[in-house]
């Protein structure tokens, strides 16, 4: 290998990295602002700010080195297709553009956890304000900005919380691949997230945006310059979803090791596959809607303005056509994690593996036909309401398959109740409540009362936080030894689980009741009769936040302060990602392994090992 | 299997069914004690009825799954000191899977049918001119108010951050609070002057989005006198939470007549400067992006 040549050629390129990126981002921002203010149609700076954010992102990515490879190819430099990852060692690689999926997984994990902290602080501000039924603690305007920032930040996080860290790190290891199909797209999908988060945070300088995460026009057209942060940040997250979706799909379809038939694919990878399909197809619709909104705000179009011939229904439809698959982008990988972990800790084959896969695909398919259930009381297309009611309720059938698979797997096994398994059981409980309350919302007559109330807010927190974030925690506890070589402290983990589980339910169950008792979402002032309920919820929310602090403390403690080296394969799992040494070698596998059996063949008297790591050499068979 | 008592499937079933039944009954009793005040209109009472039926169906599903999860976690757990033990290699059970799929499918269809019949039957009721329709017929942009309609016409006009009401049957008078006569079917026409709001009359069981340029219709028949609360249920800017009015009232027919006369007198001067009644109003084009 021409490693030496590579390093000399790298010296030819401009110095890339975060400092260059930040420098170009700042330059790009001011260039964009100048351009927009010079040629913009309004004198309200929106054009300048939008262009500023776009140029800043482009500058940042160029500074990070995303143009080096295309330019190098253009100019005829020889570059190894998977160059830098091989020779990169040390802490510095986590702060550079790395093409190693393992580095990207860690980068994602740390970024997501950091963003989660800010999103959580936002939630605490919201709950503190709601201690009082009038906006006396936090002024109404600030309250509204915090609602917007909390919601969009959390949407950014949950879009990538599982696919980002665990999808990137584990999919190649699970499918026996030495690389991702499109490592540059993969790196791009990560490096779009920090600019998106920073641009979103920049909304605070402009007074935030008043629309929550739904960005309903025309409120979003009336809003101040903070709205531009929403537009550009969300477009970047959409791009991240698209690039990550393309990469994951290609990797899973094309780079499975020989012998890894579809029927042997780990169920977690199926979850990632389905979520990638959704991200790839849904995010372009969002991006298109956001571009239209940006044009409305900057170029005098009126896509969403009824007074000038547009319609606010257009935004609602485009947004929810993205928005409803989006919520399954959150939850499908979580389904994958829960089924995967159930098999490994029950130490049994997955009960009804095919039913589980059909369940994932059923949700994927049906999620395209339900979006108007968000618009039951909007006055649009009343004749279609029975259809959307039926399609929405039908989703509970494939979702029920997931419960069938997990419960069937646990049945008459000997479940090893580790911390990750506890989180999976917590997931089942929370998601059950989330799913059942979802059926209430899907029924048009009951939705008339529940729509836009705290009931729906509590419902989606049950599915996203009680569902996805619990599965996220399970995944961290389970795969942390794989990713870092260190065990998370299990005692702290148990305390964390019970603390978080109780605080979570104590926070959100009362909110279901608040919704039934006339409390609309996103209000800073509410019925004084509900003050006690809200104070209860606020104190529970503080407990919930402190449980997350405990989680963070556990991660920091076990990772850096008092690291306990993990034994190889601490969970004695069969699956392929645990069969390779720690730390994972630069190219994962010496040779592309030959898969001999499924990952869940526990208890078979003469089960083959999951793979022959010597690869195809000397292999005689195996399908 | 070591030192564990060998339990048959029947033993397991009994140990699961008993807590399931107990919890379900407890759940039903608890749920039946909850009274929601959404009964001021026929439609609101319908919604609450649907809510109870759904809860009655949801409770056994919820308790069933919770009992199964807890049972597995408690009785099938690996105890301290036990070696790791691989469970029996069962890859699935066709009968159980089929039962699960069929049961969940039937349950969902029952629920959907329940919802659709509520929706459709009450729409049919509206078609023959009787009272009662759970859900609005949606927007009829630009269509004039039907004069033959025997429903009381009430236009709800939303703007940042309050609701006002116009009564085309009473000379288009615009009021700041809403009173409705008991027993008279009402056709609400909900529209907005600026951005999207949502008119939520909680005790009446009415919620309809107010869209600029759209006449969103909703039908309700008040059946009980008393006051109701109006709130905005769609985020509409900084004072969204304050966009509420606790002074809505359902009153007797004669009280309504005297109230509307009084309103006509109070707002007579202002009424002269109002635009004439229309399904929707186009204000000055919204100032964008300021």
What attributes characterize this protein structure?
heterodimer; A: about 625 residues; mainly alpha; Cytochrome C Oxidase, Chain A; two-stranded antiparallel sheet; 2 strands; disordered C terminus; B: about 290 residues; alpha+beta; Immunoglobulin-like; 2 domains; 5-stranded mixed β-sheet
Would you give an account of this structure?
- The complex is a heterodimer of chains A (623) and B (290).
- With 623 residues, chain A is an all-alpha fold.
- A two-stranded antiparallel ribbon of chain A has the order 1-2.
- Chain A has a single domain (81-578), classed as Cytochrome c oxidase-like, subunit I domain (Cytochrome C Oxidase, Chain A).
- Chain A contains 22 helices and 2 strands.
- Chain B has 290 residues and is α+β, with helices and mostly antiparallel strands.
- Chain B folds into 2 domains: 9-77 and 98-127; 138-273, Immunoglobulin-like (Sandwich), CATH 2.60.40.420.
- Chain B contains 5 helices and 11 strands, in the order αααβββββββββββαα.
- Chain B has helices at residues 9-33, 42-75, 94-127, 253-266, 268-273; strands at 138-139, 152-159, 162-167, 173-175, 179-181, 186-192, 197-201, 206-210, 216-220, 226-232, 244-251.
- In chain B, a hairpin with a 5-residue loop joins strand 3 (162-167) and strand 4 (173-175).
- In chain B, helix 1 (9-33) runs antiparallel to helix 2 and helix 2 (42-75) runs antiparallel to helix 3.
- The longest helix of chain B has 34 residues, at 42-75.
- Chain B is elongated, with a radius of gyration of 27 Å.
- Residues 124-148 of chain B have low confidence and may be disordered.
- Classes of the chains: A mainly alpha (623), B alpha+beta (290).
- At the A-B interface, helix 7, helix 11, helix 13, helix 14 and helix 15 of A face helix 2, helix 3, strand 1, strand 8 and strand 10 of B.
């Amino acid at each position: 290998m021409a490693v030496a040549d590579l390093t000399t050629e790298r010296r030819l390129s401009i110095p890339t990295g975060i400092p260059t990126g930040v420098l170009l981002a700042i330059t790009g921002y001011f260039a964009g602002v100048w351009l927009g203010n010079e040629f913009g149609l309004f004198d309200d700076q929106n054009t300048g700010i939008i262009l500023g954010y776009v140029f800043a992102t482009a500058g940042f990515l160029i500074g990070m080195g995303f143009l080096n490879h295309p330019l190098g190819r253009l100019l005829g430099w020889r570059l190894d297709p998977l160059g830098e990852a091989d020779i990169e060692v040390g802490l510095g690689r986590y702060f550079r553009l790395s093409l190693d999926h393992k580095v990207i997984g860690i980068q994602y994990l740390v970024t997501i956890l950091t963003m989660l902290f800010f999103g959580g602080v936002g939630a605490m501000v919201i709950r503190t304000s709601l201690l009082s039924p009038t906006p006396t603690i936090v002024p109404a305007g600030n309250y509204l900005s915090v609602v917007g920032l909390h919601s969009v930040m959390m949407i950014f996080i949950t879009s990538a919380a599982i696919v980002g860290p665990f999808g990137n790190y584990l999919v190649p290891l699970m499918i026996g691949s030495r690389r991702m199909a499109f490592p540059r797209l993969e790196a791009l999908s990560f490096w779009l997230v920090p600019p998106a988060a920073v641009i979103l945070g920049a909304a605070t300088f402009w007074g935030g945006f008043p629309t929550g995460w739904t960005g309903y026009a025309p409120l979003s057209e009336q809003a101040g310059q903070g709205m531009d942060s929403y537009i550009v940040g969300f477009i970047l997250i959409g791009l991240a979803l698209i690039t990550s979706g393309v990469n994951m799909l290609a990797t899973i379809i094309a780079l499975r090791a020989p012998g890894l038939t579809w029927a042997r694919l780990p169920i977690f990878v199926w979850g990632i596959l389905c979520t990638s399909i959704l991200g790839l197809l849904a995010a372009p619709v969002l991006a298109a809607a956001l571009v239209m909104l940006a044009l409305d705000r900057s170029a005098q179009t009126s896509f969403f303005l009824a007074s000038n011939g547009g319609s606010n229904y257009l935004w609602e439809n485009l947004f929810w056509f993205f928005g409803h698959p989006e919520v399954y982008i959150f939850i499908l990988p979580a389904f994958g994690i829960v089924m995967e972990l159930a098999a490994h800790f029950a130490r049994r084959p997955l009960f009804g593996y095919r039913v589980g896969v059909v369940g994932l695909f059923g949700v994927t398919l049906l999620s395209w036909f339900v979006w108007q259930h968000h618009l039951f009381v909007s006055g649009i297309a009343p004749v279609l309401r029975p259809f959307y009611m039926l399609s929405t309720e039908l989703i509970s059938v494939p979702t029920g398959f997931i419960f069938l698979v997990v419960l069937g797997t646990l049945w008459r096994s000997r479940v090893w109740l580790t911390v990750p398994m506890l989180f999976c059981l917590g997931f089942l409980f929370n998601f059950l409540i989330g799913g059942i309350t979802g059926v209430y919302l899907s029924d048009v007559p009951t939705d008339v009362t529940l729509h836009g109330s705290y009931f729906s807010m509590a419902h989606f927190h049950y599915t996203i936080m009680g569902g996805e974030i619990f599965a996220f925690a399970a995944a961290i506890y389970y795969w942390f030894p794989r990713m870092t070589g260190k065990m998370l402290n299990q005692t702290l983990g148990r305390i964390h689980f019970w603390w978080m589980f109780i605080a979570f339910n104590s926070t959100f169950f009362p909110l279901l009741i608040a919704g039934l008792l006339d409390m609309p979402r996103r209000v800073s002032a509410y019925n004084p009769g509900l003050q006690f309920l809200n104070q209860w919820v606020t104190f529970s929310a503080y407990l919930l936040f402190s449980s997350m602090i405990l989680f963070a403390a556990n991660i920091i403690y076990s990772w850096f302060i008092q690291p306990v080296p993990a034994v190889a394969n601490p969970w004695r799992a069969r699956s392929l990602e645990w069969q390779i040494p720690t730390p994972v070698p630069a190219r994962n596998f010496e040779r592309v392994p030959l898969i001999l059996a499924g990952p869940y063949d526990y208890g078979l008297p003469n089960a083959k090992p999951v793979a022959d790591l010597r690869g195809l050499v000397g292999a005689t068979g195996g399908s | 299997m070591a030192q564990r008592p060998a339990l048959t499937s029947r033993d397991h079933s009994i140990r699961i069914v008993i807590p399931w039944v107990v919890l379900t009954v407890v759940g039903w009793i608890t749920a039946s004690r909850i009274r929601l005040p959404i009964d001021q209109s026929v439609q609101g009472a319908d919604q609450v009825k649907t809510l109870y039926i759904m809860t009655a169906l949801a409770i056994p599903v919820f308790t069933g799954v919770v009992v199964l999860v807890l049972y597995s976690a408690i009785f099938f757990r690996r105890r301290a000191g036990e070696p790791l033990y691989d469970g029996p290699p069962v890859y699935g059970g066709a009968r159980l899977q089929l039962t699960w799929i069929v049961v969940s499918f039937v349950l969902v269809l029952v629920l959907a049918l329940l919802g659709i019949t509520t929706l459709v039957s009450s729409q049919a009721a509206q078609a023959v001119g009787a009272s009662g329709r759970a859900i609005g017929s949606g927007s009829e942009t630009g269509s004039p108010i039907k004069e033959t309609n025997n429903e009381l016409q009430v236009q709800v006009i939303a703007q940042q951050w309050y609701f006002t009401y116009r009564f085309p049957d009473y000379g288009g008078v615009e009021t700041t609070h809403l009173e409705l006569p008991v027993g008279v079917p009402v056709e609400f026409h909900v529209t907005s002057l600026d951005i999207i709001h949502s008119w939520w009359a909680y005790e009446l069981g009415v919620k309809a989005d107010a869209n600029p340029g759209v006449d969103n219709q909703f039908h309700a028949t008040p059946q009980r006198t008393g006051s109701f609360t109006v709130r905005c249920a769609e985020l509409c800017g900084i004072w969204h939470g304050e966009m509420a009015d606790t002074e809505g009232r359902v009153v007797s027919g004669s009280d309504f007549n005297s109230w509307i006369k009084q309103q006509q007198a109070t707002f007579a001067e202002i009424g002269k400067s109002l635009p004439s009644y229309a399904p929707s109003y186009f204000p000055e084009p919204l100032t964008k992006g300021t």
